[in-house]
Design a protein that fits this description.
single chain; about 270 residues; alpha+beta; Phosphatase 2c, domain 1; 6-stranded antiparallel sheet; 5-stranded antiparallel sheet; 7 helices; 13 strands; globular; PPM-type_phosphatase-like_dom
């Protein structure tokens, strides 16, 4: 199996790239926009802005699940195992946070009193992961998620699958979130969703965070096929053109002004 994979991130209007709290990652790619042979694992995560260090948690969470799923793909077939990966990310967060606090103190920027409650509560993020691999000449894929980051399976201009949400109405202001201080697998399992499928050569997959996902479903529900215009940009991996396109969609009121992270997996 081979796939061309690209990763793009755009911050909400008025924010810098460094302030973007959505994250995307792919294995085995060392950099975005390249052709990959063999199994491909992708993950996207949307940090909840209401929590402190949400972007850092989204990055650590998605990197952890990408690393573990790529080496242990059966994680995507069990809600308990997928929840356990999020707990592992929480364990890594404890170490990362201790280093972050120490770094702040070493640079005469200690944690302020008003930051302490949110640090104690933890950061929050959604999570979506998928793996693509060959079985007897066919491309099989599995995906698992928590929250409202979505995967879209497209063939030509037809949407074959939308996971885990299938309508704009399904998006709410309170999606399920993984908390950086959660060590309770059972609590997370209740919100994990799983799916799997088989793809043909030439099929496309878009994994993205909620603002773009909701916009895509809005286009589908309005009997429009947004895939060609979107994938022309994502396939090229041109961040500037993609950012301009996102700004244009926001300006019409069709897309919510929020951070965007997207992975495009093109099965050629």
């Amino acid at each position: 199996m081979g796939a061309f994979v690209s990763i793009l991130r755009v911050p909400k209007g008025g924010s810098t790239d460094e302030e973007c709290e959505d994250f995307a990652t792919v294995a085995p790619a060392e950099s975005p926009s390249e052709w990959l042979d063999g199994p491909v694992t992708a993950a996207v995560s949307d940090g909840a802005s209401e929590s402190l260090l949400a972007g850092r948690w989204a990055e650590l969470l998605s990197n952890t699940v990408r690393e573990i799923v790529h080496g242990t793909p059966e994680v995507l077939t069990s809600a308990d195992d997928f929840a356990a990966v999020m707990v592992e990310a929480s364990t890594r967060w404890t170490k990362w946070l201790a280093e972050y606090v120490a770094h702040r103190e070493a640079n005469d920027r200690p944690i302020r009193w008003y930051e302490e409650p949110k640090l104690a509560t933890g950061a929050y993020a959604t999570l979506l992961a998928a793996r693509f691999h060959s079985v007897a000449g066919s491309t099989h894929w599995q995906a698992a998620g928590l929250g409202d980051s979505c995967l879209f399976h497209i063939r030509g201009t037809e949407l074959l699958r939308s996971f885990p949400l299938q309508s704009v109405a399904a998006f709410t202001s309170t999606p399920a979130l993984a908390r950086s201080r959660t060590q309770d697998v059972d609590l997370l399992v209740d919100h994990v969703t799983l799916t799997a499928g088989v793809a043909d050569q030439g099929d496309q997959f878009i994994l993205c965070t909620d603002a773009l996902a909701a916009w895509l479903l809005l286009q589908v529900e309005s009997d429009r096929a947004p895939w060609d215009s979107l994938m022309e940009l994502t396939r090229a991996g041109d961040r500037n053109r993609f950012a301009e396109w996102i700004v244009a969609q926001r300006s019409t009121g069709g897309m919510r002004n929020d951070d965007v992270a997207v992975v495009h997996v093109d099965l050629g």
